[in-house]
Amino acid sequence: MASAISNFAPRLESAIGASHVSADPSVCSAYVVDEMTPSAVAKPDSAEEVAEIVRFAALEKLSLIPCGHRTKLRIGMPPSRYDVALDMTGLQQIAHYDPGDLTVSVDAGTNFNDLAAPLHRQKQFLPLSVPFYFDSTIAGIIASGVDSSLRHAYGTARDFLIGAEFVDGTGRICKSGGRVVKNVSGYDLHKLLIGSLGTLAVITRLNFRTFPAAPSSRGLVLSFPAPENAFALSNLVEQSPLRPASIDVVSPQLFKLFLEAEKNSPELPAAPLQGKVPADSWHLCVSIEGTSEVCDRASGEFTRIAALPEAKHSQLLTLDEAEGADLWHYLGQSVPLLLEASAETAVFKITIPPSRLALLVEHLRTLADQASLAHAMLTRACGVVYFALLPPAGEPSRPAPAPLHRLAEPAAAVFSLCASENAYATLPWCPTQLKREANVWGLDSVAPASGQPVPLPSLALMRRLKAAFDPQNLFAPGRFLV
Amino acid sequence: MDSGLLRDLEQFLGSSSVLSQPEDVVLYEYDGSVEKGRPDIVVFPATTQEVSHIVKLAAKHRAPIVGRGAGTGLSGGALARTGGVMIVFARMNRILSIDPQNQRAVVQPGVVNFDLSLAAAPHGLYFAPDPSSQKSCTIGGNVAENAGGPHTLAYGVTTNHVTALELVLPDGEVVRVGNGQGDAPGYDLTGLFVGSEGTLALVTEITVKLSRKPEAVETLLAIFDSVDDAAETVVDVTARAIIPAACEMLDGWTLRVVEDFVHAGFPRDSAAVLLLEVEGLREAVAAQARAIAEVSNAHHAREVRLARDNAERELLWKGRKNAFGALGRLAPSNYVLDGVIPRTKLPQTLRRIREIGARYGFDICNIFHAGDGNLHPIVLYDPRDRGQFEHAMQASAEIIRYCVAVGGALTGEHGIGMEKSELMPLLFSDADFDLMRRVHDAFNPACLLNPGKIFPLSKGCGEIRVGSRAPSDSRPSAT
Fold first, then answer.
1. d(CA B49, CA A332)
2. How far is CA A112 from CA A115, A179, A198, A477, in A?
3. Which of B216, B317, B231, B324 is nearest to B271 (CA)?
4. Residues of B in contact with A181 (CB under 8 A)
5. Which of A382, A383, A338 is nearest to A360 (CA)?
6. Do residues B353 and B401 touch, judged by C-beta distance below 8 A?
7. Contacting residues for B416 by C-beta, under 8 A, at least 6 apart
8. What's the rounded Cα separation, in Å, for the pair B423 and B329?
9. Chain A residues with beta carbon closer than 8 angstroms to that of B427
10. Is B429 close to A469, i.e. CB distance below 8 A?
11. Phi/psi of residue A69, each to 5°?
12. Rama region for A123: left / alpha / beta (φ>0; ψ in -120 to 50; rest)
């Protein structure tokens, strides 16, 4: 790699200025993706500079990985090549915000909190409290495709990203959509950037519709000894006239991580969870937003629901806004907590019709128990399961001659279970070594009938799309599509 | 047209499913827009496999293909601009499944929008996108155009309610994109195909979300003596963080003709009315209705009425949804525009529209989705007067240019089609077109699918043969 550095770094410096480029190994080492270190880091200040860098990369056939604060770079397959880390944190400003229009236009590298603050002052917000949001750039949140509990009421980014500006693989600044909430002018290319991991284009600016913040909120936690009751009641809540902002079920193991985080927190919690709810339970966590009348109505409905025969042995806890803040913060940060819990955590994201959630959860528990692995789960009522395998520290992988990662077999079992249940599994968070044995997009599980990968019968179309955006395959090659 | 293709199609589908006589195909040369484009052959497949085979036959003969639902579109999206084969989905009109527990339905493209809501009603569910033509337009057409409607203010447009598609590509290949849940791994192809106006693939099956009916609904009619006051009310409602389910405006011209026709109770001497709806929990609805009344009164509303019951609510909505038909009483023809602006720009844009109308000597009515800044100015003209038609088009282009200039876009819900393809450079650069072109070619490389749409002709497919635009007959449009 040393020769590559001496080859291109000085020329890149002359293209965009020495202060925007570093080939210092100690700098580059902070941009490692799946054990691969780039030869240089470029930190542009403007969309024009991004375009300049991409044109340079196209000319020199260098691969680029765009990144922000690098909290979610673990998602995806290891890159097949990685020459330049494109640090986008130099592009940070709110380009346009008119609270009266409920729209905001923001540069890619803007920290989410720096965007949230001015929105908050106008009593507005973006429902993107995703894992690591406080330490994320807005484009990092979009490109990594992570979701939040609030998707129940507000949808995912595809429902409120209304436009984007980005640099395509030919090094030109392009855009799609606009700054209006309703728009069918041209193809919705910006939707493709969501979850694309930087493989299609480098995002330079994003336009969102914003949402008015509710005057108050309330948290309702129903705790059950068995998961099936939690899911049954979750369905009842979903079918009630209440329109909750979020409905999630937290497994006992995950809840223990919340309690530990609470214990280790330097700040005193407003309302300690410890002792409030039975620790060894499955917790149905529902948040309600609205006026105090709406919140009171929800509390009343929950008291009624908790008295139903289906809710036998359950325990209801009602939390006001301040009391609920910690629980919903931990809930939103479940993935970071799971990743901290073990050096080799593997977190699957599985989608399945809500009516089959309970059964899938049962199968997943059996699978983990059979593999003697600790596990934890967060499920969303819309049919999303985050399923974590938590191997204890220190156990060696299986010895030679076949040094399989110890999660390789359980991971394959999860993928094949999901394929047989007609669920779609990916493995967004796991150790790099495991990625050498398991395709994190589930592309190893092939449907017997079509010979196509189970989750992606449209893989060929996606490859064509990738070639249209990035004809030379400069952007994050190998991370998503080969 | 290649006579071999007609023979192949008749042989495959049977002659009862193929039209080619001029007196038959002429019925398919128009939609709800002022555009025309006559297909050479019209076919009526009943299955995905038939669509796939038709596409392969057309490709073999290098004939263009255009999909069509009910033909209610307003931008020429379902017209055969360069002739060729039109695939009409009228026979693929089955609701394949309704899954109330998971709030999903799987439908064929020819299912009429409102029929799905009717079928879902026993489960307390409905299909949220509600274009004014919902009693005739098809879900396949809604998908192609990413259709909107009054209630999209709170619930989003078609793309927000589609989770998976079955597609037939221009080479006949059948592919599924997305999944029932909507979180399919990989690129959001569903999001790309919805609103691509039939230029990337034909849609043969659609998985949609069904929404739960709200516990309570309140419909308000706010009556104003000045258009400016009505417009300021809309701006202020948004600014005060009230998101009604719908917020529609009718100006004086429109409400008078609607009142004469529908008797919805709009005062004939008022300058504008706002039709607002709030939905949700009883408690939330009561508070929002109060807040809306306060805002309206602060902006000098003459009166704010609350619909007392379902009958009154339906009457008010009848006035809104039948307005376009009613306008047929004012002039021999009308041209419905579709522009979209940032909501705060509403008052100044309405003033500019009045100025433009006055300058060209037209009456321009406004009836539109005020809450999301989606304008529908309607230019009244006489199509028998060629000069008037040209002027109507010029005035319209000027209005759309103004929308773009204040930070808006070319179309909010009707699509670009062939109506606005030449205006696309107002929004998009050469780099944007190049990328859109490459995306187009990734799916439709030979440009056989719906040629002459979206892209300006100078930036579109090489071999397009296009006739000159002629005014259509006077027909009430549906939006």
1. 45
2. 5, 19, 18, 27
3. B231
4. 343, 372-373
5. A383
6. no
7. A184, A185, A186, B75, B197, B410, B424, B453, B454
8. 30
9. 178, 185-186
10. no
11. -90, 5
12. left
- Whole-angstrom distance, CA of residue B193 vs CA of residue B144: 7
Bond preceding residue A401 cis, omega within 30 of 0: yes
Is A384 within 8 Å of chain B by CB?
yes
Helix (H) or strand (E) holding B413: none
Architecture of the CATH domain A336-393+402-467: 2-Layer Sandwich (3.30)
Please give the radius of gyration of chain A, using alpha carbons only, rounded to the nearest integer: 23
Tokens of A423: 């669920």
Among residues A139, A166, A138, the alpha carbon closest in space to that of A51 is found at A166
Q: Is A329 on the interface with B (CB under 8 A)?
A: no
Residues B81 and B451: beta-carbon distance below 8 Å: yes
Residue B253 has phi, psi (to 5 degrees) of -50, -50
How many helices (H) and strands (E) chain A has is answered by 16, 19
Tell me the C-alpha distance between A417 and A408, whole Å: 14
CB of A35 within 8 Å of a chain B CB? The answer is no
Domain boundaries, chain A: 1-213, 216-332, 336-393+402-467
With a CB-CB cutoff of 8 Å, which residues 35-74 of chain B face chain A? Answer: none
Beta strands in B188-288 (DSSP E): 202-209, 211-212, 216-224, 246-251, 272-280
Domain at A216-332: CATH architecture: 2-Layer Sandwich (3.30)
Q: Which of B40, B67, B90, B139 is nearest to B417 (CA)?
A: B67
By residue count, chain B amounts to 479
Residue in the structure block whose two tokens are 């963080």: B241
- Provide CB contacts within 8 A for B241, sequence distance 6+: A123, A124, A212, A213
Amino acid at A170: T
In B293-444, DSSP assigns E strands to 303-306, 333-336, 339-340, 364-369, 374-375, 377-381
Which residue stretches of A40-134 are H helix? 47-60, 112-121
One CATH from 3.30.465.10, 3.50.50.60, 1.20.1250.20, 2.40.128.130 for A1-213? 3.30.465.10
User: ipTM, 2 decimals?
Assistant: 0.95
Length of chain A: 482
**Using the 8-state DSSP alphabet, how is residue A320 labeled?**
E
Identical fold between A1-213 and A216-332: no
Residues of A in contact with B438 (CB under 8 A): 468-469, 471
Q: Which of B195, B173, B172 is nearest to B85 (CA)?
A: B172
* Exposure string for A236-263, b = 16+ CB within 10 A, e = fewer: ebbebebbbbbbbbbbbbbbbbbbebbe
Distance from CA of A241 to the nearest CA of B (A): 6
pLDDT, one tens digit for every residue, chain A (482 residues):
444 444 798 999 988 888 999 999 999 999 999 999 999 999 999 999 999 999 999 999 999 999 999 999 999 999 999 999 999 999 999 999 989 999 999 999 999 999 999 999 999 999 999 999 999 999 999 999 999 999 999 999 999 999 999 999 999 999 999 999 999 999 999 999 999 999 999 999 999 999 999 999 999 999 999 999 999 999 999 989 999 999 999 999 999 999 999 999 988 887 888 888 888 999 999 999 999 999 999 999 999 999 999 888 899 999 999 999 999 999 999 999 999 999 999 999 999 999 999 999 999 999 999 999 999 999 999 999 999 999 987 655 555 555 678 999 999 999 999 988 889 999 999 999 999 999 999 887 665 555 555 557 788 999 999 999 999 999 999 998 65
What is the set of domains in chain B, with CATH numbers?
1-213+427-479 (3.30.465.10), 216-319 (3.30.70.2190), 331-405 (3.30.70.2740)
